TrEMBL record:
Keywords: Membrane, Transmembrane, Transmembrane helix. Coiled coil: none annotated. The chain crosses the membrane at residues 71-90, 96-115, 135-156, 162-183, 204-225, 245-264. This is B box-type domain-containing protein. Signal peptide: none annotated.
Amino acid sequence: MSKDYCKYHPLTTARWHCATCYIQVCDDCAPAGTDMEALPNCILCNQSLQPVRTGPVVTPFWLRYTDFLRLPFSLPGLGLLLIFLLLPMFAPENLLLPAAFVSYALLALIGWGLLRRGASGEVSFPGLPELGQMFAGPAAPLALLLAGVMTGLVLMTQKAALLAFLAALVFVGALPALLMVVARDKSVASLRQKDSWISVFQGVRFLYLPLGGGAVVLFILAHAFFGLLSDVATPGVAQGMRNVFYGYGLWVVFAVSGYCLIQFQDALGFEGERGRNKVRKSAVRRIDTNTAKLEVYLKEGMYDKAVSHLRGLAEKQRNDIAIQERYFQLLVFLKDKSGVAHQGESFMAALIAGGKGEEAVQILTKVRLVMPEFRPEEPAVAFDLAKACVECREFARAAALLDGMHQTAPHFPQLPEAYMLRAKLLSDKLGQSAAALDVMEYLVTRFQKHPRYESMRGFWKQLGGKDVSDEFH
């Protein structure tokens, strides 16, 4: 079976198909929603995606017929057949018919486990945990139905052997189709629907001839062996042998029918339990929805949607450096000068909050290449960025970031601290004592009730500031 590959990840196998956009995508490009049982939606058109059937290549059942014929002879199978052989021998003769009904029902239940294994591509006997689940779904009603038919054929044999034999041939020939209808639709009630039978025959087509024919041959051989031995056996032993011969054939037919479901899964529209579980579990390992959407938008050239998408994320997650950087880089790529300046401020704030002041200064340099007069609009960002510049020994840039803050942000709570830093930079690092004195004049005049007023006043005097009392000395 050939593989389809994701449109956006050419080396990744596609798992989903969009019938509206006519594209195939992988799990990463089909982000899961809140309901893990629901199908994901296409990022481009928001319509439900459909799973792509990419099952493994299955060896045709007619090339593995020996595997199916040997299957009941596995150790668990032999043990069960031995039990079914011995049970009727200890049952009273007047209870042999009810015992036969129970035996056929149990044989069919075990056969359902073989069918489920075959439907996953495995030709092996089910383990104990799987046999413990054999009453789930349509298994029990199907087992009762088959047991009723087989018991009825036994009764018919006692009155009209030839008619019972011919009826059994018809039943066995149709048995593989019956099993596939129930397994595909997961309901015994679907046997009453003509369309279900037709779809199975149309899916398997002429290959149903060896399938149904093989079931008939198995029945004839089992019937012949039983006929040779039953003449010399007691009723209990005869029923035990019937259980063994018919049970063997029944298990082989169940296993082959299940294997045909996966071999013709596309034609039959069959989706096994493992496939559904794999789809559900894959939703857990998918990447973040926002990342998937953004990647698709960018690869499709839908930059307006990408910008809008990232803008919303950046506003909601202001301290997420990865999102802020992605948005900033996209605006740089699109040469959006105003957007670069505005987003650059948010990006630098996220970097500073993350302890990456040096990188924030580098972004400031890039932003000023686009807008030389750029200054952060938020005074807190400007103050933090100035402190980052000081750590990088870019004193002139730090002082410039704080210039005029009393006009642009007169009510900024940290204005005194910001201007103290600017004054010290001007005085100690840049040799501009006069400018530093002007800054301190403003501080000691306006913030006389500030907790650090005495400290500001001392530095102001150190720079040469004089108050009225000093003029009389």
